[in-house]
Amino acid sequence: MRNVYVLGTGMVKFGRYPEKSVPELGGEAALMAMKDAGVAIKDVEMFACGNLYQANAMVGQRILQQVGQTGIPVINVSNACATGSTAFREAYMACASGMYDVTMAVGVEQMGKQGLLGGAGGGDPAYGTEGKLGSGLMPAVFGQAGIEHMRKYGTKMEHFAKISVKSHKHATKNPFSQYRNEVSLEDVMNARMVGYPNTLYMCCPTGDGAAAAILVSEDKLKQLAGGRKRAKIAASVLTSDPYTDRDLTLPDVSTLTRRASKQAYEKAGIGPKDVALTELHDCFATAELVHYENLGLCGDGEAAKFIDTKGGCHPDLGGHAPVNVSGGLLSKGHPLGATGVANICEVVWHLTQDERAKERQVPNAKVGQAHVIGLGSACTIHILTV
Amino acid sequence: MAEEAQATDSGPRPIVPFLKLGSNPHLEGQKCSSCGAIFLDAKRVACSKCGLTGTLKPIPLSNKGKVYVFSVVHQSFPGIKTPYVTVIVDLPEGVSVRSNLIDVNHEELQKDPKKGFDMPVELVTSVVAKDREGHDVVAFQYRPSK
Ligand SMILES: [Zn+2]
Predict the structure, then answer these.
(1) In chain A, which residues have their Cβ closer than 8 Å to the Cβ of B15?
(2) pLDDT at res. A358
(3) Burial class, A192, CB count within 10 angstroms (exposed 0-12 / middle 13-18 / buried 19+)
(4) Which of A127, A139, A354, B109 is least buried, going by the fewest C-beta atoms within 10 A?
């Protein structure tokens, strides 16, 4: 496999765009990434598009109708919350394999008012089990994951709440974030309970968004980068759920991430101490806490101590091992298909000291990682270096 | 699902096939005779732990278990009454089950989650809906053991 670099990135500020279509949003991000890379659509040889809710509608091809139909191969990817990052990985592999020199990944989603509760199935609704045999909804699933940590290590609700306070503070410096308001610990603790221990501020908001990246081989980088600093993809890992004993009842968000993390560090030839910033999948504050340990940012059982000592906070706030300096999904929003590519954009901006990271720039960032889980199906981790 | 299980029965029907009604309502698992994994869904083509086929045999599951973890659901789909306690119960056979935990004070659990951990619980059943054909639909819940 060859080295692959991210030559250009683009991202539409996450928010509500009821007046725009999914292909329009995706097309805007694609144009931004191409402009940033200094390439035109005729230079792009392969395109992977991540989108979930319109997965049957050839979203990638419709994006090309917006930005230029050149007849290139298009893959449409759907992989739950890991949809965008899986598309990015497809574009990476197509380039790393030697088959193409310039590829494009776009993640795009319009959530409307659908929210994260998900849809209902067919059949007689009397046999629907939601609320009758417990809950499979995300707030309950991730509530339980947090409570499992409480059970094992005595973690308190305050620790989860502190994560929300931290991420909201980070978001104030990110113009791409849907919400940019600070919240206090009291605000978080006293907010409406959604699924204990996650209150409203500990659950990510939904929204619309799009993000894109242009990936190139090393040879193309030399031709096209013009001496500009570009991030290398040091590891691209995708895993699916391994069997665990509580498989059927309690989706295991930890084993999935731990396996991916181990593989990613091995591939990149680095350890967690080398990582200057992490964008991880904080769909709920409880998820962020368990992932500190899953990604090795602290030892097992030490997540609460990590938080209490400002772990995960931006260095400007006196913290270390910064996590979700973008504001994370908790503030930025979580348009499912766009999330994974947007996480990678954030990491790339810090590594290349791009002006889009300006106010929240993590100083001297040489290594960053982006982590996404798609529940019940997928975990991606990308480690990038300069 | 339920139609196949009790096609000619005009009485109450279980909400899921692994709930067995009758005089002693209980859950029935499918145990892999090779690796010992237990599944609640009867319709599977192989064991997802070891990958072998033809190894799954029905096994009656205990009505008593212990709470592993829970969450209190305060927001759900329209028509689902909240708050309620969703719970993962570990059964002695080595399988876990998701259901509702009833007859507990959810506010106490939120204040002191430790009260929930390892709580001994027992299975009860109740009618939770009527289907399109007018049959009672029966679900199972757990309550603190008497
Ligand atoms: Zn087996």
Answers:
(1) 126-127, 129, 132-133
(2) 92
(3) exposed
(4) A354
Q: Which of A49, A81, A298, A313 is catalytic?
A: A81
ipTM: 0.91
Please report the pLDDT score of residue B10 as a whole number.
72
Q: Do B72 and A132 touch (CB under 8 A)?
A: no
Answer yes or no: do A197 and B110 touch at CB < 8 A. Answer: yes
* Structure token digits, residue A222: 């030399």
How is residue A57 annotated by DSSP?
A: S
C-alpha closest to that of B121 among B138, B108, B103? B103
Q: How many CA atoms lie within 13 Å of A143's alpha carbon, on the beta-carbon side?
A: 29
Q: Would you say residue A324 has pLDDT above 80?
A: yes
Position A115 scores a pLDDT of: 47
Q: Is the dihedral of CA A86, A112, A194, B41 positive or negative?
A: negative
What's the alpha-carbon Rg for chain A, to the nearest Å?
Answer: 20
Distance CA B47, CA B67 (A): 26
Mutate to test the interface with B, among A151, A201, A254, A290 (most CBs of B within 10 A): A151
On whether any CB of chain A is under 8 Å from the CB of B132, the answer is yes
Would you say A238 and A357 are in contact if contact means Cβ atoms under 8 Å apart? Answer: no
pLDDT of residue A120: 42
Q: How far apart are CA A263 and CA A273, in angstroms?
A: 16
- Cβ neighbors of A240 (< 8 A, separation 6 or more) are A256, A377, A378, A379
Calculate mean pLDDT across residues A138-157: 96
Residues B130-138, mean pLDDT to the nearest whole number: 95
pTM: 0.94
Q: Do B72 and A246 touch (CB under 8 A)?
A: no
B145: region left, alpha or beta (phi > 0 left; psi from -120 to 50 alpha)? beta
CA distance A154 to A303: 11
Which residues on adjacent β-strands are paired with residue A108? A210
**Do residue B74 and residue A129 have CB atoms under 8 angstroms apart?**
no
Among A53, A104, A99, CA closest to A75: A104
- Provide the residue type at B140 as one letter: F
- Chain A residues closer than 8 Å to B80 by CB: 130-131
Q: Please state, in angstroms and rounded to a whole number, the distance separating the CA atoms of residues A144 and B72.
A: 9
**Residue A26: strand pairing partners:** none
Residue A247 to residues A252, A256, B70, B91, Cα–Cα distance (Å): 7, 12, 16, 14
Per DSSP, which regions of A85-175 are E strands?
Answer: 102-109
Residue A331 pLDDT greater than 90, yes or no: yes
